Amino acid sequence: MSNKPMILVVEDDAAVRNLMAVTLETRGYRYHLAPNGTEALIEATTHQPDVILLDLGLPDMDGVEIIRKVRSWSAMPIIVISARSEDSDKVEALDAGADDYLTKPFSVDEMLARIRVALRRLNADQQAVSRENTCYENGSLRIDYAAGCAWIGDEEIHLTPIEYRLLCLLARNTGKVLTHNYILKEIWGSYTSSEVGSLRVFMAMLRKKLQVGGDAQPYIQTHIGIGYRMLRQDRTTEDAQ
Ligand code: CA
Predict the structure, then answer these.
(1) How far is the CA of 55 from the centre of ligand 1 (A)?
(2) How far is the CA of 167 from the centre of ligand 1 (A)?
(3) pTM of the entire predicted model
(4) How far apart are the CA of 97 and the centre of ligand 1, in A?
(5) What average pLDDT score do residues 152-157 get?
(6) What is the set of domains in the chain, with CATH numbers?
(7) Residues 78-99 pLDDT 10s
(8) In angstroms, what is the span from residue 34 Cα to ligand 1's centroid?
(9) Which pLDDT belongs to residue 240?
(10) Which residues contact 158 (CB under 8 A, 6 or more apart)?
(11) How many whole angstroms from 10 Cα to the centroid of ligand 1?
(12) Averaged over 197-213, what is the pLDDT?
């Protein structure tokens, strides 16, 4: 089958790169390998992979620079891999347009789970383009964008205008980690770190309202010090960490 997903692995550590390649091969993915940023950009444009796994610390350029370049022409999912424990690097990469992140050391199962989330987003995006995109469905959550209403099952959930905008922003980016910075800019048009506290309060309220009639599906995932992500619920819950 030639329609197996294609993964581009960008990693300068040969041992890690080989482990990733073997894992992908075993699971039936096609892949290309790049040991530095220059080759990564060539591979990305030549092969148009479905997902890029990108190490942030490369010998010839910063991974964030690669994200910016790829984003200038493609929305392909990018999962960054960082050995750095600092959240600011991940936040910078996510703000530059990365979808998700893995922190070294990571297990191959974790890597495969993240790839599945990224491929799901890709599929959902393609379906959304081919369909009239006025309704959103995820597990028992439903949003009618045209009517401006949201439901859990048959029960309408009553949201304030800000809660509704937060829910729509997360829904439109299902599977992608959105940083505090990005959310504050999209919802309030500004960003100061003191507003992260208010965002947390709004998110807590929104989460509570999504738990209707014993529906305890974890729609919104918290990434401490980084941001939030809407998880897709309708197929399996295996990615709900
Ligand atoms: Ca590295």
Answers:
(1) 6
(2) 36
(3) 0.81
(4) 20
(5) 93
(6) 6-126 (3.40.50.2300), 133-240 (1.10.10.10)
(7) 999 987 677 788 999 999 999 9
(8) 12
(9) 42
(10) 209
(11) 9
(12) 91
